[in-house]
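Weekly modeling sync, notes
Attendees: S.R. (lead), two postdocs, one rotation student

Agenda item 3: backlog of single-chain predictions. S.R. asked that every request posted to the team notebook include the full sequence so nobody has to chase files. The rotation student volunteered to paste the first one in as an example of the format we agreed on. Action items at the bottom.

Example entry:
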Amino acid sequence: MEAQTNSLLFNEILFGLAMTAFLALVVMEKIKPYRRFNQKINKESFLTNTTAFLFNNVILTLLRVSSLFFVAQQFSTHGILSGMDSGFLKMLLSFLLFDFAIYVWHYASHKNYFLWRFHKVHHSDKSFNVTTGFRFHVFDLCLEIIYKCAFVIIIGVEANVVLTIETLQLFFIFFHHANLHVKNEDLVSQVFITPALHRVHHSSLRSEHDSNYGIVLSFWDRLLGTRKELVPEKIGLDFIEAENFLQLFFLAFITERHVKRILRLVPRGRK
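Predicted structure, as returned to the notebook:
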């Protein structure tokens, strides 16, 4: 009981540090941004993304944390790693498998048409800043919770380790969405996903944004041939955009196919 209490306290401290890092990155972006976006776009991005965070946070934070924690408590003795003694090695393996599992989910969210419906909401931001890490459709997050619960059952991750990994991933989501130039980024990006790598992932071109799927570690992309290093000309989606939270929510139900069908119905003038 005491160990569980200490674990929860440790993760509360980690979460506090992650949110402190978020605020610090916001200030750093304002002082010295890597790229200056149109002021109107930046304002819409910040308001829409923070509204999405407040809405999703109220609905999902307790659900996500409690679900993963409960599932881990019930099934940590049944999964693949359940036979290992608790310790650093088990935690490291759990982290590596968890990070790879999220890489797979992220890849599937781009390649599967149904999952892309919801994930494209994240890519609809015409700006690229720390708050973009909040820009997710509530259904996207719900589906991810189910996927993570399944992973926890299969692997047998301990509850305290799950919470620690979730918090670390939150920090890296803030970090790699930052509109900043990171010192020695070429070197750092050999191990971790950095803003430069993730900026490519938010390119308006499908051929460019279908890359760099990692969340924390960057070598999954290198191993599986999905890494791209370039500077995208434009950020966001060409066909679709959302200027407020309501538009963001309904964006998932308007697909590129719908837009193209509508465009075919509009008469075209002769050149």
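Discussion: group reviewed the output briefly. The mean pLDDT is 81.
Action items: rotation student to repeat for the remaining queue; S.R. to check formatting next week.
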